[in-house]
Amino acid sequence: MPDSRPDTVLVTGSSRGIGRAVALRLARDGFDVVLHCRRQQAQAERVAEEIRALGRAARVLCFDVTDRAAARVALEADIEAHGAYYGVVCNAGITADGAFPALTDTAWDSVLSTSLDGFYNVVHPLVMPMIRRRRPGRIVVMSSVSGLIGNRGQVNYSAAKAGLIGAVKALAVELAKRRITVNAVAPGLIETDMVDAEATEAARRAIPMQRPGTADEVAGAVSFLCGPDAGYITRQVLSVNGGLC
Ligand SMILES: NC(=O)c1ccc[n+]([C@@H]2O[C@H](COP(=O)([O-])OP(=O)(O)OC[C@H]3O[C@@H](n4cnc5c(N)ncnc54)[C@H](O)[C@@H]3O)[C@@H](O)[C@H]2O)c1
């Protein structure tokens, strides 16, 4: 008998910002959601409540995506208890900006580790269970316009986000025959806690649409890539940037 449970998608870094908007949008579009946070469990639980109010199941996992062992233990236990996921949205990310000569080792290491180790630490334990499910699946990775064109003061962040695009393109080829699509979303300037108001005002003038984007606009693109209309779309980067590039 076909499995009639709704498909489940894990969204990393979903206690706030773009991740929260993605989680809520996926729930509205019919998915059950595994929320994820590093420390903000109460905030993530509030998002879970909002999702349950929409009639979808939600639970919260907490671990630092840079902690390989913690990620593996949490994800394997969750899959053991609830079954393999249909999809994952690798959204957790940080910035630590500064002109390159003044960049600290910590700013370099932490930004690359959160993006690239974070991708590996989360996606690697999920892939075999997704393959064994023998059904379509989705992997969506949050890159950035910085990973496409490079941003002044963001050598670390631009390298990390470009690295993610390389990982997406390679993994998409490996998983294509399994009907698991792998795509990146590359937002431009999106108004969240990550960006400061001064930077937003300065950048606004460079954006052809003359405004920053919203988390909900990014969430719509992610949900499209997770949905049935995107079954033949893989190895792509979908920009959500008001025409910036
Ligand atoms: N806001 C923008 O303008 C913008 C533009 C392009 C790309 N992005 C990307 O979108 C994603 C979400 O950004 P946002 O603007 O919502 O920022 P945000 O700071 O509001 O959210 C980032 C989330 O990631 C989580 N996170 C960070 N490091 C983590 C770690 N080590 N372990 C577990 N969780 C961790 C944070 O707790 C937070 O919930 C990031 O990957 C970011 O790089 C944002």
UniProtKB/TrEMBL annotation:
SUPFAM superfamilies reported in the protein's UniProt record: NAD(P)-binding Rossmann-fold domains
Residue ranges occupied by any Ketoreductase domain in the UniProt entry: 7-193
Annotated EC: 1.1.1.100
A GO molecular function held by the record: 3-oxoacyl-[acyl-carrier-protein] reductase (NADPH) activity
Keyword set includes Cell division: no
UniProt keyword list: Oxidoreductase
Pfam family of the protein (one): adh_short_C2
InterPro entries: FabG-rel, KR_dom, NAD(P)-bd_dom_sf, SDR, SDR_fam
Keyword Secreted: no
Homology family: Belongs to the short-chain dehydrogenases/reductases (SDR) family.
Protein name as it appears in the record: 3-oxoacyl-ACP reductase FabG
Protein species of origin: Modicisalibacter tunisiensis
Lineage: Bacteria, Pseudomonadati, Pseudomonadota, Gammaproteobacteria, Oceanospirillales
Gene designation: fabG
